[in-house]
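pasting for ref
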Amino acid sequence: MTTAFGLRIMFWNANGILSSRTELQDFINKYSPDIILLQETCLRPSQNLFLAKFQCYKTDRDNQNIHKPSGGTAILIKNHLPHHHIPTPQLFYIESTIINLSLPNKDPIVIISIYIPPSSDPNFFTLDIENLMQVGPYCIFGGDFNAHNKAWGSISTTTRGKQLKQFANSAGLDVIAPPTPTRFGINSASTIDLALVKDFLFPFNISSSALRREESRSGFVQRFPCDVTPSQKDYKYAAVWIDGEHVDRLEMFLACKRLRGVTWSFVCELYASLRWLKARVSYLGNECADQLAKEAITKGDRFLLPKSLSYLKAEIKSAALSIWQDNWDNGETGRSTHDIVPTVSNKPVGWNREEIMFVTGHGPFPSYLLRFNLRAHDNCSCGEKGDPIHYATKCPFTLSWHFQTTTVSLKLQWLKNILTNSFSRTRLRLLLSFICD
């Protein structure tokens, strides 16, 4: 029998942790959390937080008001848990503190305390989350997202909430919210304290618990059992016969380990086994089916069946696409685009204006303007040749949107990777918008 080992993670917008230490200590005594993620700690660089049996890591807000500190995040973790602190990468829209949890016989888990200030841009904050996702393969983001969405219990949906939900869906993240509100105001209650998890396959429970309701403060506890206890049930077995050609598919299902969401419950409850059944020999039904199939192709009268209209349409479409493909392959223009989209299709590739300019090079680039004598040279303001690759990888004026530098031999694959990744395409649009402005 497997014994479940659990972690209790609490995250809370403290709105000034030094003035809230008493209620935090009471909460710790009552619920015994293992890890505490704090937001709006409002600590100066010279101030530290000490709690018995906990190790503290904090990230203070840059450029604070010297008279009234604000913002900031922190993580408190029990001393006995094996872990290490990870420095926070450069972020523009959110604040965070990061640790790496290394439990015995488990893959490392990155735990991030995150705070998104209400004043931050509600459209581009996902770029910072994407940056944090690169820290490790298994991530837990917990904290105050200031993102309202009806999908997780808020009474309305804001721009940031809509953007967060779209980002989570496209990035394969799960948004986890408690069933009750996490922030209480005057005649209002909302859910803005959330968890984002990436590739976290273990069952969990989540709930909210008000720390100081009269002052609109709340925190909530989240439980992530890191081991699975098999249910002690009497399983009923049912025989499922399959063609021997498809045994490999069933074996692939049995070997599958990375299942998400509700599928995990089926893995915990399902017991599958393989039985080999000879395809036809000694089974009357299979032998009869074989015999009838042979008679169908050897006996009977031949007849002519006119081709259907749908078949003729498909043939004409195929011929037209073949001619189009031949012209596209042997043309003299659009070769850079041909390298990326070598096959013609009636379906548009879905590129917007900025992406088309980047791929074709037809845009506000000195290298393009020189071809039409609209500039005397093709140099960028920094002195190097001003082509799309330069602005995307080297130009110091576009540093905020740089991609990793590529080599000439890998340029084609580099472009394909950018155009097939939704986050890279967003960064590319921001880069081109900056250049056009």
